[in-house]
Amino acid sequence: MRTALKIIAALIVLAVAAFFTFAPAYVESTRNAVVPHDPYPVSDVARALHDEMIVGDWHADSLLWNRDITKRGDRGQVDVPRLIEGGVTIQVFTAVTKSPAGQNYEENSAEAFDNITPLAIGQLWPVRTWNSILERALYQAEKLHKAAAKDPANLTIIKTRADLDAHLAARAAGSTAVGAILGIEGAHPLEGDLANLDKIETAGHRVIGLQHFFDNALGGSLHGEGNLGLTEFGRAVVADVAERGMVLDLAHSSPQVARDVLAMTDMPVIVSHTGIHGNCPVKRNFPDDLMREIAASGGVIGMGYWAEVACNDITPSGIAKMIKAGIATVGADHVSLGSDFDGSVETAFDTSELPALTHAMIEAGISEADIRKVAGENMVRVLKARLK
Which residues are the signal sequence here (predicted)? Predict the structure, then answer.
């Protein structure tokens, strides 16, 4: 009997170990897939242009997953080796901290079961993260800092304008290192306390999204329960973000929140990952007139690479078409790249294949000057305007 109990106990231990080892990887492999495809064309002209221009991406959720981003992975869409292969100069890594069960683009409740809790437990995140949204944001920042410490030749964290200038100078001198910027996807990690913005800033976060898929203490989500505007707490956060020299991100905010922000501040704001309503008329993409108001702030619109914002045409040529529509809608000075890589989206290419997007933009008839702006110059302009 005692032997049988030992065998059962051993089997239970093995089953638990197998779950924690393989289940999180399986979940990510199904959530962040790249559609199988033949190699996309990249002309010599496109390759030459891509290799010498600044390339920046406003949004990737890679820190949510249990992968060593300093090593080339066999799942997901972003890691440092693939960023280097794709010629990426600057990558924003955004911390996802809460996701409602049944998440959808139409309407979600803030009271729904949180999907990130079992993911944090299953990936063996520190216990402090299991019941604290703030700690999840801080932990994901820690992960990026550890990656940069492990691979300083290829990954550097940008927190200040001086950091940005130094990184761009190094790239101009021949470095292929990737500059990483931290952000939060929704400001619910503040947990209703403005003082927690100190902790978020100290951790290195510089891009502050106000909402994600649900209404929060700051105001309404694009996918919430009533197009609510900014709350008084939300207004206080926006004012503090403006003072601190952070970048404010309206992705996932309700249209009313976006209009409230634009009415109370003159800083350039961004929509980090989205599409163009005139090109793909869905709720996830703000109306074109609101996009033009955001552009008028001096801000930028990050073009995403997934089906729901591109109306299913997610090949490089499809994304180039969306970019061209964005240029026609808000002007070439206000369009950027915002992939949403590793954000539980299926894409037709990963970050290593970005030269194919440059090729597709050339084929779409976008001028070299405008391609440079979209690829990274517009991003750098906003970062220089906001970082201190």
Answer: 1-25
> Which CATH homologous superfamily contains domain 32-386?
Metal-dependent hydrolases (3.20.20.140)
Domain spans in the chain, listed from the N-terminal domain onward: 32-386
Compute the average pLDDT of residues 284-291.
98
Q: Could you tell me if 211 and 222 are in contact, meaning their C-beta atoms sit under 8 angstroms apart? A: yes
**Using CA atoms, how far apart are residues 182 and 198, in angstroms rounded to an integer?**
14
> What element of type H or E holds 205?
strand 205-209
Q: Contact, 371 vs 361, CB < 8 A? A: yes
Q: What is the spatial distance between Cα 155 and Cα 89, in angstroms, rounded to a whole number?
A: 10
CB count, 10 Å around CB of 144?
A: 22
Containing 155, the helix (H) or strand (E) segment is strand 155-157
The 8-class DSSP code of residue 55 comes to: -
Letter for the amino acid at 385?
A: A
Q: What is the pLDDT of residue 28?
A: 75
The residue among 307, 382, 317, 305 whose CA lies nearest residue 351 is 305
Question: Which amino acid makes up residue 332?
Answer: A
Dmax of the chain from CA atoms? 78
Tabulate helix, strand, coil % of the chain (nearest 5).
Answer: 45, 15, 40
pLDDT tens digits, 164-215: 999 999 999 999 999 999 999 999 999 999 999 999 999 999 999 999 999 9
DSSP letter at 61 equals: -
